[in-house]
Predict the 3D structure of the following.
Amino acid sequence: MNHLAPSILSADFTRLGEQLAAIDAAGAEYVHIDVMDGAFVPSISFGMPVIKSIRPCTSRVFDVHLMVEEPVRYVKEFADCGADIITVHAEACVHLDRTVEAIRELGLRPAVALNPATDLGVLDYILPKLDMVLVMLVNPGFGGQKLIPYTIGKIRELRHIVEKRGLATDIEVDGGVTLSNVAEILEAGANVIVSGSSVFKGDISENVEQFLKLMEG
Ligand code: DX5
Ligand code: ZN
């Protein structure tokens, strides 16, 4: 099953509620929420108070992408703010298994993100415990970057591993996804598509509808 996850990092924050209503009405099933700590990535975005205040705006799945060092320190707080999926970076966790377990114990869906240059081998043991893997197609930290071409092969390789192991793990991709390259990304094996600038620049409803049309089936 394919899902679209618009990243609100590219939204107009003065009209966040309105824009959430627009992506919801146009049929996007996830809301991708990028939390940046200024340490794991250079930038600082937003955190718990923003997530808590937008939770009543939509009942769609809150897909919280933590670009944060040692996110295990905060998983309970993000659960309390209304996260449904919590994604942590393998590179940011000394105890990845413990972090994934903590997310599961809170009743949420755990996911692990990998930076472009991180080997898929780090997933060998943890993969069966995950609902989703997030393959970064750009170096995390900013919206509006260009996809790094070698990451397409990485999606393909991960899809092959998931199938060979008989798992149902979702494969999410994030960074540089546009209406022009989404078909190739889906074909490579991704099924959860994050898009920031390509959804929020221009007509939001029309952009969501166009993505969903390309993602049908
Ligand atoms: C980047 C974030 C992304 C970002 C994607 O570090 O994780 O979710 O918002 O933005 P676009 O789709 O514009 O590359
Ligand atoms: Zn993200």
Summary: Residues 7, 32, 34, 65, 174, 194 surround zinc ion (ligand 2) (CB under 6 Å). The mean pLDDT is 98.
